[in-house]
Specification:
- It comes from Pseudovibrio axinellae.
- The protein starts with a helix and ends in a 5-residue tail after the last helix.
- It folds into 2 domains: 89 residues, Arc Repressor Mutant, subunit A (Orthogonal Bundle), CATH 1.10.10.10; 88 residues, Orthogonal Bundle (Arc Repressor Mutant, subunit A).
- The chain is 53% helix and 16% strand.
- 33% of the residues are buried.
- A hairpin with a 6-residue loop joins strand 4 and strand 5.
- The strands form 2 sheets. It has a 3-stranded antiparallel sheet.
- The protein has 178 residues and is α+β, with helices and mostly antiparallel strands.
């Protein structure tokens, strides 16, 4: 999965969770998915529509009611669901899962396998603002998903960020080369 697809995928709060639930065998109807995810109806519906637009989900023809369709994973969705399942299982705690639902958490962790400077992360995540990146890095550092080190070897010291603990597990679940 490339970083652009990952950014698009995580731009909706419940997208990763929906894919992980479908991967684990939860039926593709809205009611079971909604109950299993614990999401609100509006955000859940927006995430479901978003996954359909990304062509990771499709309506299952001949199944479901027109107002309550049944969904299934597309071939691309099967690969994304496998990755989403690995990411979701790396964070079993509901409090920490709330951080995982934020837009930039997973893309930042995907880029920090090796130490990265702020500017390097920002360059790879083109649509992110400095404020959003800074806020996300602070939140990730508070949860100890990212380790911040100050490199004093250069003339001007600068911080580098690297995935750690649960952040490292999430990073390993994402293969940006695929």
């Amino acid at each position: 999965m490339d970083i652009t697809t990952l950014v698009k995928l995580t731009s909706r709060a419940w997208s990763l969770n929906i894919l992980a639930l479908l991967h684990s065998g939860v039926p593709g109807r809205q009611a079971p998915l909604l109950a299993a995810s614990g999401a609100g109806r509006t955000s859940f519906s927006a995430s479901l529509e978003h996954l359909t637009q990304l062509k990771l989900l499709e309506r299952n023809p001949g199944h479901g009611h027109p107002l309550r369709p049944e969904f299934r994973l597309t071939p691309a969705g099967i690969k994304a669901a496998e990755i989403a399942s690995k990411i979701v299982t790396a964070v079993p705690n509901e409090k920490e899962f709330a951080l995982l639902r934020k837009s930039w958490t997973v893309p930042i962790l995907a880029l920090t396998a090796a130490p990265q400077r702020f500017s390097g992360i920002r360059t790879n995540l083109v649509p992110i603002t400095d404020r959003a990146l800074s806020t996300s890095l602070v939140q990730l550092e508070e949860r100890e998903w990212i380790k911040r080190d100050i490199n004093t070897a250069a003339r001007v010291p600068f911080p580098t960020y690297c995935a750690a603990n649960a952040g490292q597990q999430i990073n390993c679940a994402i293969d940006l080369r695929v």
